[in-house]
Recover the amino acids of this structure.
């Protein structure tokens, strides 16, 4: 069942890793629907399948079975380059370890997805400057990532994730490598983005961050064990 | 949205900055390989040119015929008769054998006395037809000339001297217009052969002979039996027909089986030229293979570096893929980087090779026959094209395989947090 404003619609998603000798079933039948404008936290212990789920949602990987629609579009059967385009246009990634390219400036890092998206030069400059302004790093554009603090690096990563104006932001433990104060800043930033209409999906161990999400999905052993956003559940924020 | 132009190039320029020391070593390996390839090919080319010149010293595409003895009976005549054509037979051959640039008789008298002033030298004298000079590449040094038809017709006592013979007789004196006694008969020197290399010969080196008109020789010595006939067809393909024609004409006059191979011993330089060309091709191939192998070792070095680069940048590649890079935007810059190393190295090698070949060309060969035969290493457009082609292929391959590995990077695996 998918609604019109559904961004993510997953039905009976399974992911099996075949290591040759053993088969590991990381996801064992996930049903998940996320609508436009939702702020969802995915929580669960290590090895529960959270990251696998995020890779599938972000089209970095494909499910073994099940149906996955991203903004109504079937992902199964897409070619490598089509998946690349989906990642470029529809999804913005934010990683625990930032994954900024160390040799190029903050500006060039944010510009990278625009380059892949075929955005003309002048438009790229306009957008990167606006984004750097938005994350409060307008004066750090020419700095290399190594010249920035952890919190600043993560803000550059957020600007990069927003560059192509994606349908959903996917954040994997975004505060995991940050001190409390920087982590707080990032949480504020996420809150702002959500309030401006963004759709957010955050994987986290951090109870504070999870509490900010309006909906919490708990995964254990490759299955959803609790979903505060499922029909009938209480979806008021746990602030 | 239109893709920005030169996206791959932009990505290449933005990829992690190269490690200088490693880049320099890689480029040096390619430069070394290119240098080896170019020098080997240049030596081969120089050797080929010098050998070609040396072979041409005797004349190009000519045949030399030695009259011999019959080995089979023919029309009632027994085997074992010596066949000795005469000067006048040349005219018959000219009239009856079509497709000839020219044919000339040659009478050799060994042990002739040459005297000029106090100097006396013992050397062969050859009486030849005027066309012989053209057939046998007898180029006069400046100030002199070869025999002409009037010399022959009027039986002039004029002589064209080989280089060494001229030096032996005249020393530092200018021989042209000078007088020489040939077996006590005075002759005027009309020309001296230029210094030349000669690999093939059938009666000694041209540098040690004296050439006089064949009719003058007949007048002086009374012998008109030809020692040798020299002929040249209008084209290589006509050689066999020309030789058969000569055999027919002489067989009709002297009575022998034209199929009897022992009557007219033949040196067909078109045939031997093919063997020589194959031999030179073999040498060039051998040198090229060594050169290409050396260059390949350099190429493997580049591929190795590029594999290391891919390994180091696995995370970077994964990030780019997550941000939406298509696979050729990942592989393109890597191929370009491999190609850049290779072409930079190749260019360096070419510059060094050009300088070295120039410097080697300045080394004087002096009187050393071996050095002369080895020739000067020569770079030709063909060699440059070969090197550029080989470099291009090696560069592409050296980038292609590592790039393929890059394209197989699994972004999900790479980005998994540590």
């Amino acid at each position: 069942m998918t609604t019109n404003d559904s961004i993510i619609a997953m039905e009976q998603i399974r992911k099996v890793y075949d290591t040759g000798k053993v088969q590991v079933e990381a996801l064992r039948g996930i049903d998940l629907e996320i609508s436009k404008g939702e702020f969802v936290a995915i929580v669960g212990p290590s090895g529960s399948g959270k990251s696998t789920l995020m890779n599938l949602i972000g089209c970095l990987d494909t499910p073994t079975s099940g149906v996955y629609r991203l903004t109504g579009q079937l992902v199964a059967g897409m070619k490598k380059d089509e998946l690349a385009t989906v990642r470029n246009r529809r999804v913005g990634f934010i990683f625990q370890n930032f994954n900024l390219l160390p040799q190029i400036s903050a500006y060039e890092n944010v510009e990278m997805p625009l380059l892949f998206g075929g955005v003309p030069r002048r438009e790229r400059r306009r957008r990167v400057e606006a984004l750097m302004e938005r994350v409060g790093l307008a004066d750090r554009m020419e700095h290399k990532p190594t010249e920035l603090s952890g919190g600043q690096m993560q803000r550059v990563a957020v600007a990069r994730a927003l560059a192509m104006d994606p349908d959903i932001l996917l954040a994997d433990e975004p505060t995991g490598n940050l001190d409390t104060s920087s982590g707080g800043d990032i949480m504020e930033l996420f809150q702002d983005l959500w309030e401006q209409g963004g759709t957010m999906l955050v994987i986290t161990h951090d109870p504070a961050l999870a509490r900010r999400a309006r909906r919490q999905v708990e995964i254990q052993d490759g299955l959803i064990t609790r979903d505060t956003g499922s029909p009938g559940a209480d979806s008021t924020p746990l602030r | 949205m239109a893709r920005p132009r030169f996206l791959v190039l932009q990505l290449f320029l933005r990829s992690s900055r190269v490690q200088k020391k490693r880049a320099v070593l890689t480029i040096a390996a390619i430069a070394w390989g290119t240098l080896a390839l170019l020098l080997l090919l240049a030596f081969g080319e120089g050797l080929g040119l010098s050998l070609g010149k040396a072979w041409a010293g005797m004349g190009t595409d000519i045949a030399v015929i030695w009259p011999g003895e019959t080995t089979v009976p023919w029309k009632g005549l027994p085997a074992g008769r010596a066949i000795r054509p005469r000067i006048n037979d040349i005219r018959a051959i000219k009239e009856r054998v079509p497709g000839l640039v020219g044919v000339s008789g040659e009478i050799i008298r060994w042990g002739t006395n040459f005297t000029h002033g106090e100097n006396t030298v013992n050397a062969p004298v050859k009486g030849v037809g005027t066309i012989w000079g053209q057939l046998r590449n007898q180029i006069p040094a400046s100030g002199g000339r070869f025999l002409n038809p009037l010399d022959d017709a009027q039986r002039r006592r004029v002589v064209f001297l080989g280089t060494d013979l001229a030096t032996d007789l005249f020393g530092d004196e200018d021989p042209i217009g000078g007088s020489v006694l040939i077996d006590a008969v005075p002759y005027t020197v009309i020309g001296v052969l230029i210094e030349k290399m000669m690999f093939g010969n059938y009666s000694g080196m041209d540098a040690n002979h004296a050439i006089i008109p064949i009719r003058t020789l007949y007048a002086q010595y009374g012998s008109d039996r030809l020692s040798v006939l020299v002929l040249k067809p209008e084209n290589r393909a006509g050689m066999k027909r020309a030789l058969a024609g000569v055999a027919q004409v002489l067989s009709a006059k002297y009575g022998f089986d034209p199929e009897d191979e022992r009557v007219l011993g033949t040196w067909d330089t078109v045939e031997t030229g093919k063997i020589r060309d194959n031999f030179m091709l073999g040498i060039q191939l051998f040198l090229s293979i060594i050169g290409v192998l050396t260059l390949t070792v350099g190429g493997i070095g580049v591929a190795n570096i590029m594999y290391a680069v891919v390994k180091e940048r696995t995370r970077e590649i994964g990030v780019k893929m997550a941000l939406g890079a298509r696979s050729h935007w990942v592989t393109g810059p890597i191929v370009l980087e491999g190609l850049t190393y290779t072409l930079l190295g190749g260019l360096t090698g070419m510059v060094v090779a050009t300088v070295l070949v120039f410097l080697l060309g300045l080394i004087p060969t002096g009187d050393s026959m071996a050095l002369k035969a080895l020739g000067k290493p020569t770079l030709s457009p063909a060699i440059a094209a070969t090197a550029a082609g080989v470099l291009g292929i090696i560069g592409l391959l050296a980038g292609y395989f590592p790039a393929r590995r890059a394209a197989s990077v699994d972004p999900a695996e790479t980005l998994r947090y540590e």
Q: What stands out?
A: The mean pLDDT of chain B is 88.
